[in-house]
Write the structure tokens for this entry.
Amino acid sequence: MIVTVTPNPSIDRTVSLGAPLTRGAVHRVTSTTNEPGGKGVNVARALGLARLDTVAVLPTADDDPIVIALRAAGVNFRSVPAGGVVRTNLTITEADGTTTKLNEPGAPLDAAALDALTRTVLSYAETASWIVLSGSLPPGVPDEWYAEVVARLASAPCQVAVDTSERPLDALAAGFDTAAPDLIKPNAEELAGLVGASPEDLESAVVQGDPTPVIVAANQLIARGAKTILVTLGAAGAVLVDGGGSWMAAPPPITPRSTVGAGDSSLAGYVRAAVGGAEPPRRLQMAVAYGSAAAALPGSALPAPSQVDLNAVRVHAITPATIRP
């Protein structure tokens, strides 16, 4: 079983425009979608489409609209009782694939609900193959929560992945020396923030065909105790770094329609390959194939296996000799 954990779930409302977004103007919407969301929910939805045994854990009231949406979408989930209403996040997509997101902070999670969520996550430790902790933390949850959960899972047989940002990511990285997850999935901006680099420099180097700055930055985290780092780089592909090597994958050419859920799909692809026993290069290949497939879909749609073109993704190893000091 794969368990995804979404502390700050959402209803993801996506509106599509036929013309570029202009501040202060009136726009005609060409289509709208509403889907159950939050990063862990998206991972669970993508893995469910691949028919993997997956459960999405999230705090929510039994009568919240997200519960109805999850059931309608056929997502296997376990809700932890919580007060408040799940937030609604608005995404605006333009015809060229440009995506603008407006995310609400989420309903506060009190101490009792947080304790119940923590205990629920830990209850899966002995039976899950992977536990995936994803997304922002709602008001009332300490920045250190992910780090604390990872530390408590350290002795369990399951693999642990974390995909978060800002202060929760900083808190997680501060504990890499004692309790690092098996995988983290930063983008260029998040990786740069952890090592004091420029995200623009990292992205531009990869676009020019030189993943060295990204690998050097990721290896700084490996030196601090991190295990495996999957750096997603949008249209430039992704880089995977672990203690045994580093690899870069270039995505296939696509017509982008929406980037909503693309990073979550990449994580789902990685986990899907991992549970199948794939080696790191194949995991990276699957991650990029999934992310590219998601970006080619409208709104917050997530790819089914039939929409994922694995063979269109090129992966090559980066040897130590090619990395400048």
